[in-house]
Structure formats: structure tokens, C-alpha cells
Amino acid sequence: MHPAPSVIVFTTLSGLGFGLMFFLGLGLPDVSGWVAFVFFAVAYALAVGGLLASTFHLGHPERALKAFTQWKTSWLSREGWCAVLALMVTGLYAIGVIFLGQRWAGLGLLGSLLSLATVFTTSMIYTQLKTIPRWNMKLTPAMFLSFSLAGGALLAGQTTLAIPLLLIAALVQILYWRQGDQAFANAGTTLATATGLGDRGTVRAFEPPHTGTNYLLREFVHVVGRKHAEKLRVISFGLAFVLPVLLLVLPFNHLFAALAVLSHLAGVAVSRWLFFAQAEHVVGLYYGKR
Amino acid sequence: MTQLPQSTERKMGLVIDLDTCVGCHACVISCKGWNTENYGAPLSDQDAYGANPSGTFLNRVHSYEVQPAEGAAQLIHFPKSCLHCEDAPCVTVCPTGASYKRVEDGIVLVNESDCIGCGLCAWACPYGARELDAAAGVMKKCTLCVDRIYNDNLPEEDRVPACVRTCPAGARHFGDLGDPDSAVSQLVAERGGMDLMPELGTKPVNKYLPPRPKDTIEDQIDILAPLLAPVAEEPKGFLGWLDKALEKL
Fold first, then answer.
1. How many Cβ atoms from other residues are within 10 Å of residue B207's Cβ?
2. What is the CATH number of the domain that holds A93?
3. For residue B76, which residues of chain A lie inside 8 Å, CB to CB?
4. pLDDT, tens digit (0-9, with 9 covering 90-100), for A129-159
5. Which domains are seen in chain B, by residue range?
6. What pLDDT is stored for residue A232 in this prediction?
7. Chain B: nearest CA to A105, how far in angstroms?
8. pLDDT (tens digit, 9 = 90+) per residue, B210-227?
9. What is the number of domains present in chain A?
């Protein structure tokens, strides 16, 4: 799949922002006034910034409101609803915490759950696609949720929670990569089933429909950069998990905490790039490509 | 709404004969022509006369080589367009309701004024049947020439999809695949029509007829072959002398 910057920025930043919102809704950290304002501002900047970035890849962003209509079948529509509800509920809760010195715990909990639901619905947009076996796995929502919770705990300054959550996310990441590498073969879709000609011999793509490229090849057959995938996995894993955990284990220091957040953010962004770049769409088979 | 209908009254679709298709791409051109000049946003081209041309097509013809365990390889031309699936994954993922499957005839369509161009339906389609038009920013797909097949202003023989009307080899057939007595259904039954990627559960309406087995070449091509043995031999007599004399010159 084409790793469009808009979707990488969107899933990375929004995941982190809604993760932070989850902990703020639970009263972690227990802050009020201006300190709370800064925490909520960061969460909103990340979550809303990511959502705005996601509209950049639309052909007609001015019609984006129509996307709220099909929540009965479409995960993309459900994501829109969850995001708006999470932002509204958490916003009311934030007003109480920041300006009124009130902690409406029920409202906060609802905001937390909606924040997680937003991340889950985002992950389901990818997970539902049978055409992309590497995404069509239960580990995909597990990865999005575990990354969001680990990043959120890190940003919320919850050191004791962040270390185990980072370790869980790291484990999920390794499992995702291991299972993902087998997914296409396990799905059983080949050029033989794609053409229905497999029972009469070995099928080989002889001529593509056109000499030039097209939308399908640009969008679904992204092979450039896959050759560095192994190196990028190591870089991503080191930045997202290893370095932040090491920095958290050291005696607490604001500079280290900030470094841990930035390192985690960069690592997750690289992981997301790989999430798209390594994903292979079955339509590539028709072109003799992956 | 992007909920799929439980069932459709008819299942209009195409039957494509891989035995007959000669790979001329006439269906590709007639499709592009009709769907650029008629319903919806035109199928645009980018850099059409430059070094790197690319454009939107609703129908593309691939060519595959099939090498059996024994014998000669076979070249098979393979037209591919929307299969108007019964369980169309492209419809249910649409967040705006722009994509829908019609109850009356099962045709999968895009309402272009509702399309936000998110591309998710193209991601969900395993067949590459949907292409986001780079100029219009909306999703384009085969309409089964919905503006031809019910069009009373056209002569009756033209009320079929443009690709079917134009095919010089008769490799494309159009009809109701939900009616077991229709000509296309009988063709599918007789020739063993098949689904593409059946494992994905999309239940395509369009069917592909597999190529018929080719004749096998025996050791002796023809009983007259021995009589056709080459007769050129060393020239004798005057011609032999002339040949030698000319060689020496």
C-alpha cells in the first residue's frame, strides 16, 4: 500500500492524542487549573491535528460531513462518530477540571472509553479489509490499542504504568510482524485463484493492460522502500520501546521524559510507515506484483 | 444506504469468454469512450501525450501465460472490470452512502455527488475494479452502462454495455444471471463459468468461461505429410554443369 503521509500522521498523532485523553479522563494525572489546561491542550492538538491531516487525502474534503451517515455498516463512519463524541465529552469534562475545580468522574470515564473506541474504530478500518491480509488480523486492533495506551501513559507522565504498557506494546509489535509476514501466504489468494486458471497450469502475468502505470499500481503496489524494511523495524522498535523504557528506568528527569515521548513518537511513526508500505493488496497479483 | 440488499430482483452482469477473447482491447476503448462522453465525471487522463501517461479506466485487459505440466504454454487474454458482487465489500465500507447496490438489478453504482474520494472502497475491492479519478477526485467504476441498457432513445441492439456491443469476437455476453433460464445462465452452466477469487466470499455476479482445451499435436501432423517431403536435390545434367561453372567463377 502507498504510505501516504496524511494517514501516517493521522494514525500516529491521533493514536497518541486519544491515548492521552484516555488517561486524563481517568484523572491520571490528578491535575487542575492551568496544568490541566496544558495536558488537555496537548491531547486535543494531537487528536484533532491527526484528524485534520486525515482529510488531506480526500478527493472532496468539503463533503466530509456526509461521512457521518453510514455508521450502520462503515467503520470509517463509526470512527467519525466516536472521535466527535470523545472530543465533546472529554471537552465538557475538561471544562469542569480546568475552570470549575470539579471532577465529574462518570463523564471522564465515558470520555476515556470513547477515546479508546475511537482508536479501535480506526484500527477496524484497516482490519476489516480481506484484500490486505497483513491488516486482516486480530493483532491489528491489538497493536493500535496497545500503542495508544503506551503512548498515552508516557505523555500523561504515568511512569509506573507506562513501562509495563510499553513492554506489552513491544510484544504485540513483534507478534504482529511475525504473523503479518505469513499473512499473505496463509490467506491463500494467488494468481491461480485470481484468474481461475490455476488448475490448468502455472499462471504467469505476461502483459499488463497498459505500458504505463495507473491508480491501482500507485495506490496498492508500493514496493519502493520495502528492501529496507528489516532495518526500519529495528530502528522503529528501538525508538518506540527500548529507548523510552530505558529513559523511564533512569531516575526521573523532565528532559528524559520529554526525550522518551519524542523517541516513542518517532518510533511509532516509522512503525506506521512500515504498516502501510509492507501491506500487500491482492490486486497486485493481477499485475504479477505484490 | 450502504447496507447491501438481502437479495436483488435481477442479477444483471457480464459473462466473459476467455476462450474467445483475442485481446484486442476494443472493449477498453469503447468503455472509456462511452463513459467519458456520457454519465458522470469523465474518465480523465494525465500527461496523455507526455512521457508518463496514465488515466482512469473501468475495464482493463490483462494477458496471462499458462504453462501446463506437459505441452505448450497458452496465452490467455483476460478482460477485467467490476464484477457487481452480491456481497460487495466496496459498498459496506463507504462512509457516505455514495456507493450502493441496486435492489432492482444488482448493479453497483457510485453517486458521485456524495463521494468524498476517501478511496476506501477501492481498498476493499480485490479486483481493482474501482479507480479514483485524479482530475475529478471521485471514485469511478463500471456502471454496466446503466445509461445504455434502459435507454429507449437507442436502437434495441445498442441497449447493452458498450464493451459487449463492441466486442468483435463475441467474447462478452450481457444478461440476467439471477434467472437460470437466461442465455447467459445457460452459457455459464454449459461451459463451467467460474468466479474470481472465490475464497474472498464476494460472490461475484460476473462469470468467466474458462478456455476450452487445445487440440494436441500428434507425431504425424497430416497423413499427406510424407508426400510433401522436400524435393530439392542436387541438380544434374545441364543445370548441374551450370551450377558448378557458376560456383567456379
1. 25
2. 1.20.1630.10
3. 195, 197
4. 999 999 999 999 999 999 999 999 999 999 9
5. 12-209 (3.30.70.20)
6. 93
7. 33
8. 999 877 766 666 777 777
9. 1
